[in-house]
Amino acid sequence: MGLSFTQILFTVVVVVAVWRVVTFFERRRARPPVRGGRRAVDVAKCPRCGTYVPTGEPCPHCGGGPERGG
After folding, report:
1. What is the pLDDT of residues 19-49, one digit of tens each?
2. In terms of Cα–Cα distance, which of 33, 58, 52, 55 is closest to 42?
3. What pLDDT is stored for residue 14 in this prediction?
4. Which residues neighbour 61 within 8 Å (Cβ) at sequence distance 6 or greater?
5. Cα 25 to the chain's mean position, in Å?
């Protein structure tokens, strides 16, 4: 009633596969989540009120900015 070479090999393969799956999910959980769809935007200070707005857009607070002549 000893184990055959095939049974031992199968057991080793299953143990290695389970170990790889566990380590994969542990590494995935340890990484910080990625926020989808957000990108860095260059901003500039409004010359009138000092609010930072995306470069090239008018200030939503006072209407100043490069397109309105500051």
Report:
1. 999 999 998 887 776 666 667 889 888 888 8
2. 55
3. 98
4. 46, 49, 51
5. 16
Check the CA dihedral 18-19-21-22 and report its sign: positive
- DSSP structure class, residue 56: T
**CB-CB contact of 43 with 54 (8 Å):** yes
Per DSSP bridges, beta strands 52-54 and 43-45 are antiparallel
In eight-state DSSP terms, residue 42 is -
pTM of the model: 0.42
DSSP letter string, 3-70: PPHHHHHHHHHHHHHHHHHHHHHHHHHHSPPPPTT-----EEE-TTT--EEETTS--TTTS-STTTT-
Q: How far apart are CA 30 and CA 9, in angstroms?
A: 32
Instruction: Using the predicted structure, report yes or no on whether residue 55 has a pLDDT greater than 50.
Output: yes
